[in-house]
Amino acid sequence: MPAKSYSLFIIFFLYSTFGTFSSSYATSTEKIIEYQKLAETKKLWEDRYWILLLHYTKTTFGNWVSEADSSTFFLSGEGQKNPEEELYSAIQAFMTPESPPPGEENWMHPACKFPERKRWIQEKLSIPDSDFAKVDCSRFEKWFATLNPKGAKIIFASYYMNAPASIFGHTLLKLDSGDPNRKEILEYSVNYAANADPATTNAIVYSILGLFGGYPGTFSLFPYYVKISEYNDIESRDLWEYELDLKEEEVRRMTRHLWELGAASFDYYFLDENCSYHLFSLIEVARPSLHLRDKAPFVIPGDTVKKYIEQAGLVKDIKYRPSLHSKIIQKLRKMNEDERELYENVMNNGNISLLTNKEPDPKIRTSFLSDTILDSFRYKKAEGDSPKEWDQTYKQLLLFRSKLTDHYEDSGYSPITQSPHVGHGSSALYNEVGTSSLGNFVGFGYRAAVHDLLNTDQGYIPNSSVDYFSLKARYYQDSKKLHLEEFHIIRMLSLTPYNSLGRSISYFVDSGADSSVYKKKGNEEDRKLLEWQALLRPEDLSYTLYRLDDVSKSEKYERVTNANLETTFGYSFQDQFSEGPKRFLFSAQAGAKVRYNGKYDTNAVVAPQIAAYWIANFDSFKAVLSLHYYTFSIYGVPDDYKAQLGFRYAIHANHELRLEAKAQRNYNEASFSYVYQF
Amino acid sequence: MKRILAVSLFLALVASPLYVASAKHGAAGCGLGSIVITENKKVHQVIAATVNGTVLNQSFGISTGTLGCETSGFTQKQAEQQIFVHMNFQSLEQEFAKGSGEKMEAFASLMGCSDAGTFGKVGKEKFSALFDQNTPDSFLEKMRFEVANNSDLVGSCKI
């Protein structure tokens, strides 16, 4: 018997023996193949929705690759790079019964793990329920019923200068059940975050690792009050809520997909694949006709808020939720002279008897003042800025407050910060022309993110700046060289006013490169040599003189790019509690600077420095004076300094004109620039 | 100091029973993610500590955010109230002294009270008694007693 017919006989024999038992298996296998064929003819894997559900993006070579970095998110071994295989595997998995492996009590059938994929495949291929594996997805169903999602909001948590993770702000998603009996703050919010351990993470490490996807990011779900407590109360960050005009079915789709994301982790990239980017993905699943992610190379939370607003009819309402600190400022700005004076006196030393033992006075709203002081006590405690004995004082004041019956108008406050969507774009292009003691120059610069000190403050923290990956380059007419003027991996400046409410520290941190000017070393030696030559070889005198002339004409100074690392700390002062816009701020700081250029001061030098800032802000006009003095002379090299004065006029939030002057050792310059932001 | 606190909280968190599978759904809760607390923030540690110390045999899958996905049942409600009170104790204390506020209203609804105005009035009147021990748990216990026995509240609160 030839081998082939022999094997056929075996198959026939096996089939006739066991066929009766496995017929159901055979039919389901047939069905699976049938549906897979149908999917193939429909080219279903090319459907945008499938691409969205699996988070596929096109590589530069035109191949698909999923942004999800965990194998548990895929049903096919090649799923991460192959949408087609993944689709066939999904069809097979959803139709194949499977029981949990022993000891795996958290195991779920793929149909329960990926309910939205299943729902969509079922809809697209018109598969009757009976063709799917019988599974019990009660865990998912309970979860979904608990959320009962009907609407969604994007929440923006404003910038927080005291934590490296928060300098760009943060966005989260809130799911609303539409249940009139469930209070707003009891609803759930979806958070996507990098898993960095804040106890061991400093700003620089976080920034660098965050840039290169050094942290895994995952989705999590919290009652909204947890997030309010975290942002509003503990970190004192304002929250902005943007209500989206999504249909109930869209929200439910998105929520089912959210369950699927429970099995996924993504590498977290600070500037592109961050919290805001992944919320974009979620909203696109809700409404695939939106193309939110096809934009800039960088995704900055504040910018994404603008993007939502730009989509016609997507945002239907904006709400402001002030932080503890903002609430206090709001109340202070509504106080009359007498009330503010009393407030200041109580906060100076925590002596509440000034208020509690006071004779009734028509000019003093006791409840209003008590509430403001209570908030202030809480704020100071959260800041770690309240003496131990104040805890007792706080309790006494609470008791006093609980016995007061007078009412005051606790509404009608204006927001302390502005919504991020009115701010300028986070990326910038700088174009400058200028003149200096080393000749004229033209320059250009680029900023990846987010905000510099001369920018308009609307939508950002006033008197702060965060430059993330920015550089300026120049072409000097005299030296005919392209010169790297400055480069910042990260530069942060936070000028928070010092007042009776909080002794906030202001700080400045910079890492990257800056420029300074040195006397050329070569010139002196050349001159000496030529002078000797003039004496020793009179026959070449005319040539030697010609060379000497050349040497003295050539510039004595050169501009050098230095590696730079510096920081200063200090205090800032501003009249923060009065009504009306805040025009002026002054800051004095001290710290250290590390400079290395390999050419002059051959070793890296670490020297103390002092710094001062003065800011005048008149909306579309702004002036900033900054002074830095570096005491390098402790190494026997000359001190250096940098004095800068800048004027800015904003034609529009994204278009600025600037006049700037700078003075350093051996060097002065003046420049005019046009800044375009996007 | 802050750092030491954060580290010790973190260690307390790692040692918390959240990582121990419960009879119901295990550490994964019943939802998103497989690790319970992934963000290591102070607030989450507060929850962890709360659940750790007080809720008997309750696995609070933070990753699920929905309290083990149970939405009905007496213990479930109690756990929810407890976590809410622990998370918002300072705010509640302040709003009770005042007699009104958003967190107080949410708390009233968690206690099954439909009339937040009366709830706030009673809370303000009984302020010193409610908060005399200065712990979230004693406050909650006393408030439950009020809800069950206070003649002003019995009408508008369903336990």
From TrEMBL, chain A:
Residues 140-309 form the Lnb N-terminal periplasmic domain. Residues 418-672 form the DUF7840 domain. Pfam families: DUF7840 (PF25222), DUF7843 (PF25225), Lnb_N (PF13387). Residues 43-124 form the DUF7843 domain. It comes from the Bacteria. This is Uncharacterized protein. It comes from Leptospira saintgironsiae.
From TrEMBL, chain B:
InterPro entries: DUF3015. Keywords: Signal. Residues 1-20 form the signal peptide. It comes from the Bacteria. It holds the Pfam family DUF3015. The keyword Signal applies. This is DUF3015 domain-containing protein.
